[in-house]
Specification:
Helix content: 40-55%
Number of strands: 2
Largest sheet: 2 strands, antiparallel
Strand order of the largest sheet: 1-2
Shape: globular
Structural class: mainly alpha
Order of helices and strands: HHHHHHHEEHHH
Radius of gyration: 19 Å
Distance between the termini: 41 Å
Bound molecules: 2-acetamido-2-deoxy-beta-D-glucopyranose
C-alpha cells in the first residue's frame, strides 16, 4: 500500500523543497542575474461567459470523440458533423474491446457528450473542433509519465474494459473541475444554467468511472503489475503536477488524512476541504490536457492547442 501513497509524498515535498531553497537564497552566483521563472499563475483569467465555456468545450469535444470511437468505432462526424464547425477529424480513435456493461455505459456517455457539445453550440455558439490526438500512443505517453518509465508493451486504452476505464479516468474529471472553476465568473442566468446542467452530468460520468475502478481497486493491471488504485493515484499525481496549482486530484484509495473528513481511505469521489469539489482555472486545464505543464505549449491530446479566445490567447502570447 505504501507505494500507492508515494505521489502525495512527492507532491508535498517537492514544492516545499523548492521554496526552501529559494528562501535560503540558494542561487548560482555567476556574477549576473539568472532569470527565475515566475511562479505559475493560479488565479482567474478574464473572459466573457462564452469564452469561459469554450475552454470546457474543448474538453467536451475530446470526450465526445474518445467515447464515440471507443463504443462505435466512429466519431462526431458520423453523427453531427456541423458541430465540428470545420475543425479537423481526430486522429487515432478506434473501437475498444469492452465487455457489455462497460460498453453500454460508454455508449451512453458518448451520446451525452454529443448533447453537451450541441448544448454549448446552441446557447453560446460553438468553436471549431480542435485537432485531437486520441491515439493509443497519446494515452501511453500519460501512463509512462505516471509510472515513471516506458511501459512494455505500451499502454493501450482500447485493449480492454479496464484499460479503457483507466484512460477514461483522465477525461470527465478535468471537465468537472473546469466547470466548477468557471461558475463563479459567469455573469448571466442563461450561461450559469447551462454550466450547472453540464457539471451535473459530467460529475456523474466521473463518479461512474471511479466506482467501476474502485470495484477493481486491488486488481493488478497486467502486464505492468500495478494495481488499479495505484494507477489512479499516479494519474492524479500527474495532473496535480502538470496543473501546478496544488492538490486537486486524488485516486480512489488515499491515505486516511486525505480521505473523507480524514476518516477513511476510500475516495470514490475526489473532494477537498469540507468534501467540496475541487476547481481549476483555464490555464490549469490546458497545462494538464496538453501534457506540457504549460498553457502556452500545446501537445498531448491537443497537438495544435485548444480553440476559443482564451486557449488561443495563451498560444499567441507565450
Ligand atoms: C446571456 O448570455 C447569452 C449567451 O451568451 C446571451 O445570448 C444573452 O444575451 C445574455 N444575457 C444577458 C442578460 O447578458
Ligand atoms: C499523437 O501522439 C503520438 C504520441 O505522442 C505521436 O507520436 C503522434 O505523432 C501524435 N499525432 C499527431 C497527429 O499529433
Amino acid at each position: 500500500m505504501a507505494r500507492v501513497y508515494l505521489p502525495f509524498v512527492f507532491l508535498g515535498v517537492v514544492p516545499v523543497l523548492l521554496l526552501g531553497l529559494a528562501a535560503a537564497g540558494v542561487e548560482p552566483d555567476h556574477g549576473y542575474h539568472v532569470p527565475v521563472a515566475p511562479p505559475p499563475y493560479c488565479g482567474p483569467v478574464p473572459g466573457s461567459d462564452a469564452d469561459l465555456i469554450h475552454v470546457a468545450m474543448n474538453l467536451e469535444f475530446l470526450e465526445a470523440e474518445f467515447f464515440l470511437y471507443g463504443a462505435f468505432g466512429k466519431g462526431l462526424d458520423s453523427i453531427a458533423p456541423y458541430l465540428a464547425k470545420g475543425g479537423p477529424p481526430p486522429v487515432g480513435g478506434q473501437k475498444a474491446e469492452l465487455d457489455h456493461l462497460v460498453w453500454s455505459i460508454i455508449a451512453e456517455f458518448a451520446y451525452e457528450e454529443v448533447g453537451h457539445v450541441r448544448a454549448i453550440y446552441e446557447r453560446v455558439g460553438g468553436i471549431p473542433r480542435p485537432l485531437l490526438n486520441i491515439s493509443k500512443e497519446s494515452f501511453a505517453d500519460v501512463f509512462d509519465v505516471a509510472l515513471g518509465h516506458k511501459l512494455v508493451p505500451p499502454f493501450d486504452p482500447y485493449a480492454s474494459s479496464i484499460h479503457y476505464l483507466l484512460a477514461s479516468y483522465l477525461l470527465p474529471y478535468v471537465g468537472l473541475t473546469g466547470y466548477v472553476g468557471a461558475i463563479p465568473h459567469l455573469s448571466n442566468y442563461t450561461t450559469k444554467d447551462l454550466v450547472g446542467r453540464l457539471l451535473g452530468v459530467e460529475s456523474g460520468q466521473d463518479a461512474v468511472i471511479r466506482t467501476l475502478l474502485y470495484e477493481r481497486a486491488f486488481d493488478k493491471v497486467e502486464p505492468y503489475g500495478v494495481t488499479v488504485a495505484e494507477l489512479t493515484n499516479k494519474l492524479s499525481w500527474v495532473r496535480n503536477e502538470l496543473g501546478k496549482c496544488g492538490l486537486k486530484d486524488k485516486g480512489v484509495i488515499v491515505p486516511k488524512e486525505l480521505g473523507p473528513e480524514g476518516k477513511l481511505e476510500t475516495e470514490v469521489l475526489s473532494s477537498g476541504k469540507n468534501e467540496l469539489a475541487y476547481s481549476r482555472t483555464p490555464q490549469e486545464i490546458f497545462r494538464i490536457v496538453y501534457g506540457s505543464g504549460n498553457e502556452h505549449v500545446p501537445g498531448g491530446f491537443y497537438p495544435h492547442g485548444g480553440n476559443g479566445r482564451i486557449a488561443r490567447s495563451f498560444l499567441y502570447h507565450p
